[in-house]
Each structure stands twice: as structure tokens, then as C-alpha cells.
Design brief:
By secondary structure, the chain is an alpha/beta fold. The protein has helices at 2-30, 48-61, 73-82, 96-104, 134-141, 160-169, 185-194, 205-208, 215-218, 239-243, 264-273, 275-284, 302-306, and strands at 36-44, 63-71, 87-90, 110-124, 131-133, 151-154, 179-181, 198-203, 221-223, 225-227, 234-235, 250-257, 287-288. The chain contains 13 helices and 13 strands. The strands form two sheets. Strands 1, 2, 3, 4, 6, 7, 8, 9, 12 and 13 form a ten-stranded mixed β-sheet that branches. A three-stranded mixed β-sheet has the order 5-10-11. It is globular and about 60 Å long. This is PstS family phosphate ABC transporter substrate-binding protein.
Length: 307
């Protein structure tokens, strides 16, 4: 009987040891590091195309899985507060009041500026005028009649473009008359491509990197040249004009990492701000914070190289 009890005890002990060993193995396997594991990233819908490219390359390069969730700016910021260990990508930094919320949680958000974006104003291809004055856009948003503007179309009432343009116009909410909103940038592009006289307001990345199904609609709109408030000249939302600060509707882009530990948020931010990530930014039509270098090989003897 004693031998039976001893055998049962050792069998039980072996099972317990095996159980904890398996759990520990799984735990170490699933442990998140800066280049391994899984994480959720909330992104302002206006910036989705270029961030999708970043995530695809990052996942292929490392043992990482990032779940990208596109929302309006207001919803993205709310996700930062509600979700534990949240990561968000925005076209603005946190406000003083928002930063205080994380101070109460004893979390210091790590903020990385990685690019400069442009808010593009678009019109139907059939419109003859390809120049618009920013003062006219602001005046229209303030409720005034502007003969050259039939209406303005935004992506979402809670989007970063609405917040950005409202701030320029000095208003708290878009007027009900003559200003319309949908849910996405694609819907704005499609509507403007099918309706003359309307001006759409979208992130420039949606024009430079459209989905295949959207190409025909993008081809039927023009990105307008915008005349700034203190300028007599109008400029298109190109990388060069953004870099030279000529285009008046440019804004910096931020990765807000509120994980509070060294996880994928830190690794992803470093990747996007690094050489590969900045090359992706450059290719997307946005302006990277650091222009990637180019290695040039100078050959002394072309004839010898051919041989």
C-alpha cells in the first residue's frame, strides 16, 4: 500500500511539473518583445494606406503580428484611454489634458514624429479651375457664400481633417449648410469624381496609394493647388512643396505609444522612424522626417566592368 501511495505521489508530482513546464514554455513563446509577439495599433483612418504598408513589411521582417484598427481621430484617441497598453497613430500630439490622463495612470506616452502629411483639396476633373484660395475655404466653412464653391465634402464628422479645418476656420463644428460628410476618404473621392462643383477634403495618401477598385475614381479628380493665407502663389500637395513649407495644409504625424513597457509599440515606432520605414514614407508621397540616404558606386573603368 505504501509503495502504491509513493508511486501515485511521484506520478502526481510529475504531472504538476510537466503542466507548469508547458505553461512556462507557452508563456515564453508568446512573450511580447520589441520585435516579437502581437499588438493592436489604432490608426486615424486618414492615414491608413501608408500605415498598412508599414505593418506589412514589419510583419514580414520580424516575428510580429499587428492588428491594425482604423477609426476616426476622436475614436482613436478614445481607444488610447480605454484600452490597456494602447498604441495609436495620429496627425497631432496629445493635448495637455490628454497627457494628464496618462499621468494619473502613471504612464509616460512615448511620442515619435515620423512624417509630414498633407490635407488635399480635390475637385472633379471637369472643373476648369484647379486653384483654390484657403481664405475662400475658411469663409465658406464660417457660413459665408463663396460663388466658386458649391459645397465641401469631408470624410467623417469626427475625423482629423474636420478638426484640422475647423481649427483653421475658428469654428467648433462644421456648418449644416453646404458642408457634407461621409464615413471614409474613399467615399469622398468617389462622390467628388461623380459630382462637379464639389470640393472634397482628404488625406493626400488616399490619392497617391489608392486601392485598385478606387483608381478610376482617383483618375477623375484633381488635387487642387492651394493659395495660402499669406501667399499670392498656389501650390500642389507634393513632397517638394511640403518639404519647402510652401503647401499651406501640411501636418506632422505621430506614433503615440502608451504601452508603458518595452513592447511591440517601441519596436514598431523605431521601425517606422528608421531607414526602411522612412523609405516607405517617401514612396507613399508623404514627407519622411529623415530623407533616406543613397549609396552611389562610382566606377573608374567602365570597359573593365563590362569584361
Amino acid at each position: 500500500m505504501k509503495n502504491y501511495v509513493k508511486i501515485s505521489y511521484f506520478v502526481f508530482l510529475a504531472v504538476i511539473i510537466l503542466f507548469f513546464a508547458c505553461n512556462q514554455s507557452k508563456s515564453s513563446k508568446n512573450k511580447e518583445t520589441i520585435l516579437k509577439g502581437s499588438a493592436t495599433v489604432y490608426v486615424d483612418e486618414t492615414l491608413t494606406p501608408v500605415i498598412e504598408d508599414q505593418v506589412e513589411v514589419f510583419e514580414n521582417k520580424y516575428e510580429a503580428k499587428i492588428k491594425l484598427i482604423s477609426k476616426s481621430e476622436a475614436e482613436t484617441v478614445n481607444s488610447l484611454f480605454k484600452e490597456k497598453s494602447a498604441i495609436a497613430i495620429l496627425s497631432r500630439n496629445l493635448t495637455v489634458e490628454e497627457s494628464k490622463i496618462f499621468e494619473q495612470k502613471k504612464i509616460v506616452p512615448k511620442v515619435t514624429i515620423f512624417a509630414t502629411d498633407a490635407v488635399a483639396l480635390i475637385s472633379n476633373k471637369n472643373n476648369n479651375d484647379t486653384i483654390v484660395a484657403l481664405k475662400d475655404i475658411i469663409s465658406f466653412m464660417q457660413g459665408n457664400t463663396v460663388p466658386s464653391i458649391k459645397g465641401l465634402v469631408f470624410d467623417n464628422p469626427n475625423s482629423s481633417t474636420v478638426r484640422y479645418m475647423n481649427s483653421l476656420a475658428g469654428i467648433k463644428a462644421i456648418p449644416e449648410k453646404g458642408v457634407f460628410s461621409f464615413k471614409t476618404n474613399d467615399e469622398v473621392i468617389k462622390y467628388v469624381s461623380e459630382n462637379e462643383g464639389m470640393i472634397g477634403i482628404v488625406g493626400v495618401n488616399w490619392l497617391s496609394q489608392p486601392m485598385p477598385a478606387m483608381q478610376k475614381y482617383v483618375d477623375n479628380v484633381n488635387a487642387l493647388n492651394v493659395k495660402g493665407l499669406d501667399s499670392e502663389n498656389a501650390f500642389a500637395p507634393t513632397q517638394n512643396n511640403i518639404a519647402e513649407r510652401k503647401y499651406p495644409l501640411a501636418r506632422d504625424l505621430y506614433i503615440i505609444n502608451c504601452q508603458g513597457y518595452s513592447g511591440l509599440g517601441m519596436g514598431f515606432a523605431s521601425f517606422v522612424a528608421g531607414d526602411i520605414g522612412q523609405r516607405i514614407i517617401l514612396k507613399s508621397g508623404l514627407l519622411p522626417v529623415r530623407i533616406p540616404g543613397r549609396n552611389i558606386t562610382i566606377r573608374k573603368n567602365i570597359e573593365n566592368d563590362k569584361k
